[in-house]
Amino acid sequence: MAVPSAPVPDETPPGRSSPKRDALLRAARELFSRQGYRAVGIDTVLARAAVAKMTLYKHFGSKEELIAALLRQQGQEIAAALGRRIAAVPPEGGQRLLAMFDWLAEAVRGPDFHGCLFIKAASEYPDPGDLPRQAAVAFKDTCRVLLADLSREAGATDPERLAGALQLLMEGTLVLTFLQRSPEAADQARRTAATLLAAEGILADPA
User: Fold this and answer.
1) How many folded domains does the chain comprise?
2) Global pTM?
């Protein structure tokens, strides 16, 4: 099974990448991850990136397009990390599904975790037509597809149903870890995922 390398296609035209564009994306990630999207004005992002407003208009056009580009970039990085983790694990016994939970546990324990950028985007941009929300939904949909593919590969009787249950565990982990400032939810989610796989007859020992 091929592991997708880019859950949300990067719509940036070839050749548009530049040091100033990259600086804007770095500044946006640092500020938005800690303070949210609405609370941070675009002038604050520009000051952090040390670029002029014309740079924003040249590369993104608006704050919302900058956020969408940031989410696409983040999605690509997550997909690449998951792809490496999954490829290193044998497909038998649901081990690749559990590898996703192992990766998640490491991610939420990292010093740069301040909540899920995608969940925050969907919350702060609730209109279905909002670019940040569209980028967030696209990434989460692709995660669901990956979980279903891995569930099917592992021999689940109903891959879509199992994928939905596993995604609930992963999304709950992201929210609870952010709310409680504790990584315990990730450990519990991994144990629950193993129990689900055992109930499916995929995993022999859920311990």
Assistant:
1) 1
2) 0.88
